[in-house]
Amino acid sequence: MIPKPKRRRHRPKNNAKPTINDVCERCGRPYAHLHEVFFGRGKRQLSIKYGLQKRLCYEHHEGASGPHLNREYDLQLKREAQAKFERVHGRAEFVRLFGRNYLE
Ligand SMILES: [Zn+2]
Ligand SMILES: [Zn+2]
């Protein structure tokens, strides 16, 4: 048997450095980062796969009003993302993948 060549796992493309064209969806500031709406335990990869991401500047991402510190805003983004996902894949598929329904 010929051993398979070892392949490095590719990191997702969205780790690319933000540019001046990447503006915050809340305030329009450039060089905003991509936030994965669902994060933790495999969900981050699902967010990337299905494009459930939000471009946010440092303040609106990691700051007091950002989704990592502000639970209310975090849930708002999750509800928006679920609605977007459901338009294509349906609710059953959302709950199967993400393990929760945020819209009820
Ligand atoms: Zn911002
Ligand atoms: Zn984030």
**Number of separate helices:** 4
**Poorly predicted regions:** none
Cofactors and ligands? zinc ion
Number of domains: 1
Give a short account of the largest sheet: 2 strands, antiparallel
The beta-strand count equals: 2
Give me the Rg, rounded.
16 Å
Give, in spatial order, the strands making up the sheet with the most strands: 1-2
N- to C-terminal distance: 54 Å
Explain what you see:
Helix content is 38%, strand content 8%. The longest helix is centred in the last third of the chain and has 19 residues, at 71-89. It has one domain (19-98). Strands 1-2 form a two-stranded antiparallel ribbon. It starts with 32 loop residues before the first strand and ends in a 6-residue tail after the last helix. Helix 3 crosses helix 4 (91-98). The protein has helices at 43-49, 58-62, 71-89, 91-98, and strands spanning 33-36, 53-56. The model has no long low-confidence stretch (mean pLDDT 91). The protein is mostly helical and 104 residues long. The structure holds zinc ion (2 copies). Residues 35-36, 61, 68 line the site of one zinc ion (ZN).
